[in-house]
Write a structure and sequence with these properties.
The protein is of the alpha+beta class. It is built from 3 helices and 4 strands, in the order ββαβαβα. It has a single domain, classed as Hypothetical protein rpa1041 (Alpha-Beta Plaits), CATH 3.30.70. The chain has a 4-stranded antiparallel sheet with strand order 1-2-4-3.
Length: 84
């Protein structure tokens, strides 16, 4: 299991977006392919964390592989980034 999983919700972060608009685009891209995605709530305690790390885009654990493949196929980066 990845360190980026929200085990109690059974969701995992598959991408990070620098802006709310980018987060919505990623969410809509996954929705267009039949996968429900969620944008992690903004940090009200440390808003600078969102600026540095970006907003997380989450999907259900069982959809992680498919979501990553979709994002990669349309040229969007995933999180954590692939290392090759």
């Amino acid at each position: 299991m990845s360190a980026y999983q929200f085990e109690h919700e059974r969701k995992t972060v598959v991408a990070r977006a620098a802006t709310q608009a980018e987060a919505e685009l990623i969410k809509m891209t996954l929705a267009a392919h039949g996968y429900q995605a969620f944008i992690a709530p903004a940090s009200s305690v440390f808003p600078s964390v969102d600026f540095v790390e970006g907003r997380g885009i989450l999907v259900q654990l069982e959809n992680e592989g498919a979501a990553r493949a979709i994002l990669k196929s349309v040229g969007m980066s995933t999180y954590p980034p692939e290392t090759s």
